[in-house]
Specification:
1% helix, single chain, five-stranded antiparallel β-sheet, mainly beta, 576 residues, 50% strand
Amino acid sequence: MVSTFDPSPKDASQTLVITLSAAPRNVHSFVLEDSKRLVIDITEARLLEPATNMPVQHPLVLRVRAAQFNPTTARVVLDLKQDVTHRIDTPASGTENAAHKIVVSLAPMNPAAPPQKPTHPTPPPQVVRPDIQKIHPAYTVALADTVGSAENKTLIFGESTAPSEDQEEPSPWGRLNFSGFLLAKIAQELHESGAPEQARNFRNTVRLEGKWTPPLPGNDPAAVPGASSTFILASLQSDYLWFGPEHSTDDYDLDLYEGYISHATPGWDLRLGRQIVRWGKTDQISPADNVNPQDMREFFVPELEDRKIPNWMARIRLFPGDFTLEGIFIPFFEENEFDFSGTTWALLGAQPTDLRIDESKPGKGLDNSDLGLRASTSLAGWDVALSYLHAIEKSPRLRFDPTNPAGPTLHADYHRQNIWAVEFETTADKFGFRGEGAYFDKQSIHTASLDSVAKPVLHYALGMDYLGEQDWYANVQLSHQHVFEYESRILLLRRDNFYLNGEINREFWRGNVMLRLRYALDLSDGGSFLTPEAILSYYENLELTLGANVFTGPEDTLFGRYRDNDQIFCKIKYYF
């Protein structure tokens, strides 16, 4: 998060130092014409922490904000009190493993004189190259990061090397930091029917995260880049989900969310424990992202990153040259979280049923573990990756037994599959291009008779996004899913299924308000899923959202089966 932002005298330049673990692909800055805001977009970068909003007591700058503008771009906004001149410098690092810095220098604009030259000593701007200045993300205070490659970037603001009289002495017990969030969301269906449904639902999630950095030599903030670093992270999550008006479907969990130990060196890093690993480049529909299970109790309503469930696993990454080689080992099976019946989002619907559910999960043992390998690199401005995952499916394969002596029974068990995937990503001016594809040798697909069939499936997605200078962002993504050896009794899917999904948003009121539309369109069957939202982030660390979820399409289609679940919602999220 924000460490310091050192004020300078009124007539001197004000500097903001952004430190990354490698050279970014692109740094784009511009001043918005309708307000005094300097915007800096950094690609590729991903925030590890929630959006940051820090007031600043300085004649030139009102506050500094940082947020994840889109999945691959971190946006830093300086709200200015007056017109300024600015300069962006990218000083060359002394060694390959030195951190990469972006220096933003500000000076008050004097209409009667030429623009003032910044006083911060920086060399001439350097060409941004993605193949130099690499360093592992654990070496700096982590605010921003790009998932899954040696190009991972960390971002800190106002990194100050000057001593401070108020600076605390380092503790002999190391550094301990706490953060977290509190989420409350209530939703009301737009149309209620006489059938047994839940007209409203409520979700309350509280997550508390602690990170301990032991007092090891490599963990000294003043240590030179290249030393090893170690930390332990643990987060506890309380999650309550209610589908009203009855309380029979209440679901409450108090669990360890993430908990792992991380050790990093210039040539490799290792994480052991409960964690989330993101593979793939595309948004929301990501065929290559199959490492972690998902919480599907509300279908696709929560965003992909919010549906992720951490796994117990070991992850190691090696950084030979310009390549990243990654391996994962998951010893214990964890399935997707969903309901067979009893809720409006359940597999069998909200109607009460006498159908017995016989769910058989894989036992604990090496023969039921998952293994994955991934290799990535940058070639002429293109990020590319190949991966292989030998895993058990996260969703069950069903078998309906109407003649079971105990009564009609639905058997659910889990089977092994192999997944080969490829990814790519690049940028061109204000446009970003990305894509990924995965081949599944066996994927369980439901049929109208409540049985499942295992079929080979090819699924790929191609996406493009546009980042404009007038606070506009647009993302569009086309995906195609082909089912080999197709059978007519397969439910909800055709032989070839085409989907269009993405997001359009625009900021207003100096970035304190955002209007956003998330959309997913079934081009094969005509269904759709739309989520319009208005998001207010005026108050520090507080985010208020008012929105709706709207489903359309024939009843026997992927989105149309939920057309009675249209709802409006209000969400409050507070970060601490």
